[in-house]
Design a protein that fits this description.
By secondary structure, this protein is α+β, with helices and mostly antiparallel strands. The chain is built from four helices and five strands. The chain is globular, with a radius of gyration of 15 Å. The relative contact order is 0.15.
Length: 106
Amino acid sequence: MSETTVEKIEKGDNTSWTLSFLSSVAGQVDAAAESEDIKLFSWGTVGNHYWLHYTVDNNGKQAVRLMSFTAPEPAFYSIIGYCKYHKIQIEIDESLPEIECTETTH
């Protein structure tokens, strides 16, 4: 029998809290996907450049990936602080968006 969301929260599953915080800072989720092992939530900017990805596996392990060149600045720092405080794995991707690379080479 699988656990309900309420049972997971009562046992200390912080997924709902983290998803709520990220949505309060970044706005509505733009894309979501789920497999047997992991759930993925992504937020984008104008032009559909995703700047925030939140994953959580079946064991409750959470991770956040921020795209530094497309992330809005106030939200970027708020999310870093939240992740550090709650000991959530965070990766900051500092690569240029593909559109930026093609515009600078032509």
